[in-house]
């Protein structure tokens, strides 16, 4: 078996460039090798050698002579281990003393080697040494003192560079927990690993393991001892030893951090600004035992180190600051469980300090914290309204989600790679989160959410899972079907329209489903989210813990509903009410479907059009709404819209009248014969799945034939001419986008967002010509067809036109919705942006805001996308690498968007003589702060879902002006 993995190379030469390299990993071979290494006395190593200063290599009993200087002794890798690194960039059993510092930092591969080192250290802790189960006793293979000396040199090199600390603060700080440099161990991680090993071998220990992983307390030591006594007859001598080891580790872990020794290993900080702050902390709180005081003061100091570390220029002093930072995090982590707030005020304070500590630890960027800090610092008030408390909770919940997303952004790619040959790797990210302040922040926010739910009577009722306040509805709707919980990659999951799916993240090309919930929701204006909103598919966001809790219900039939206020119901079939069952009484096949209007379509227009010659009146007649509306925008905003060509419906229809190869009929007749046969099958009561299977088979034949279709000579001649005349350069010398633009899109009750093909930045002449045929064929793909079949009465009358526009290599791009989706106010705006081209619409984790009509704005989510699309002048796309220390969107951009939205709202209806009064969905981008418009369409919501009597019945009326005393018991 071979699985494909993509690595991205990013390097800087004046500007950042990238090379995309695809390599197939021989998964089965690695699995076999890993198993072999576990039983090999040398593990992944072949022998031990001395490595001398002059570059010579000597036998173990022949050390480097004094006249050439000292050397280091360590193992050499087996040949296949070396080959695996060279050919597939997978590095097993890494020895630091054998590694160049820049090679471990591995900037060209987004720090993959460093992350692999961290991941392998985790695997060793949970699997008895992993590939070194026997090799860990291979004397001389790794020398601890050499590894520590190397670690110090690594950080001396790394921490000289301000840009590394700015862009990779989280990763650098996390690496200090794994790369030896001080002789310290990560006791918390060791404790979690030991408890996992015991529960894996002895299942009754699982409850204690969950407790130790989620809410470790000093009293757990007694619980472990009692467990050992209770199960004494069942425990082997080996398990008894492991439990003894766990108790010893827990005893060390719960030993209070000696605050007075914070500067013991940081002599370089004496007399510096931050050093003085640390000394004051030691003097004032060295003997403090109250958890609330220790957490509040340690959190402020932790954040202060993050904010001030760049002012310290000495790399070793920076290293010492980071080590102090880790000790402060340990103080906070150990005391968080001991701080038990009694009032709402106390709970708000705890959340605020844990939020600032999470920022100090790198889980949030400083600019992100600045967006929520003021709201989370409001606990000085005597009371707050329910609306203010809800805003507080939403922003605090955002901090929890952003923290988890930071861990995933840094570690998910390597984890997925290793997970292909070592499933234990999938526990790494969870371990990192559970070992962080974010764990306690999430618990505290959940407790506040439970309180607010009680006060507002707005509660989720999702089976019997815990921590339901972390669930939130995104799109209203209801569904009934089998629950499918997918904890791994969603891309290989074959979804069906009668099931409800819970994903870590939604697939990039989601086919119709009954309902969906995701941990990583992407963003609320991606194509998947818009389709779900349009079709009334219930859609919610949830936490990792929620997903794990739902696994026990995988495969069961459930009812699932999300109200328009965002509260969620999920229950087993047996618990459904009569009202809920009645929602799914079988309706006529056409119920709820709409018909594509074709009365005005102009199929006689078979010449290519200049974008300037079309406007909104031509939508559904000559071309689809993308081209028609962009032509309208070109007239209204000539300097914000590129030039373009439109290949109208008539050109497609003209080509479809040609005879289909190998058939005695035309392409068009073949298509219509397929629909006619499907109708006959329905009339004969053939099951729907069989009809669908027949149709998809025929469409596959048609797509392949269209791909080989000859383009008519008069069309080719005009295309060559118009490229020069309209776009300014010959065909094949200017990169363009080819955007499918059908008459099924942007109907009053159907958006069709993202269902058909867009080809990015195509330069080569043959690729453009073949791309035209690919775009024509794209409405007949399985995904596009299934969405249409779900909603359209006459899917056979789908006609594609094509919008051809020159590429703009934007710095960032995204979506504007001219209403506040989150706020519910039609006068507000929602924007979502990602770096590079094609941002936000494809479901990336986008930087998302509500822009309020009074001029204020609110950050709903930052971007956590490591990679983005660049559009080189020679065509194609490159993958560039991002860091998160700066926001994507600036104040000037927000002002430009506010002004644009105002013009769109007032001018579009007037210019198009339309009675449409709803919101618009606009795709746009910025290049050097200049705004470019790419698309505008009506923002279609599912009116049936929004107005459903049932959904209204499950949404309580909330008095948001209700005053809540902050002295009230939490």
TrEMBL record:
Keyword check for Kinase: yes
EC number per UniProt: 2.7.9.2
Cofactor(s) it depends on: Mg(2+)
Record pathway: Carbohydrate biosynthesis; gluconeogenesis
InterPro entries: ATP_grasp_subdomain_1 (IPR013815), PEP_synth (IPR006319), PPDK_AMP/ATP-bd (IPR002192)
Reaction(s) catalysed by this chain's protein: pyruvate + ATP + H2O = phosphoenolpyruvate + AMP + phosphate + 2 H(+)
Enzyme kind, highest EC tier: transferase
Gene Ontology MF annotations: ATP binding; metal ion binding; pyruvate, water dikinase activity
Domain Pyruvate phosphate dikinase AMP/ATP-binding: 622-945
Pfam family, one: PPDK_N
Record's keyword terms, sorted: ATP-binding, Kinase, Magnesium, Metal-binding, Nucleotide-binding, Pyruvate, Transferase
Highest taxon in the source lineage: Bacteria
Keyword ATP-binding: yes
PANTHER family: PHOSPHOENOLPYRUVATE SYNTHASE
Family designation: Belongs to the PEP-utilizing enzyme family.
Functional note: Catalyzes the phosphorylation of pyruvate to phosphoenolpyruvate.
Protein's recorded name: Phosphoenolpyruvate synthase
Annotated source species: Maribacter luteus
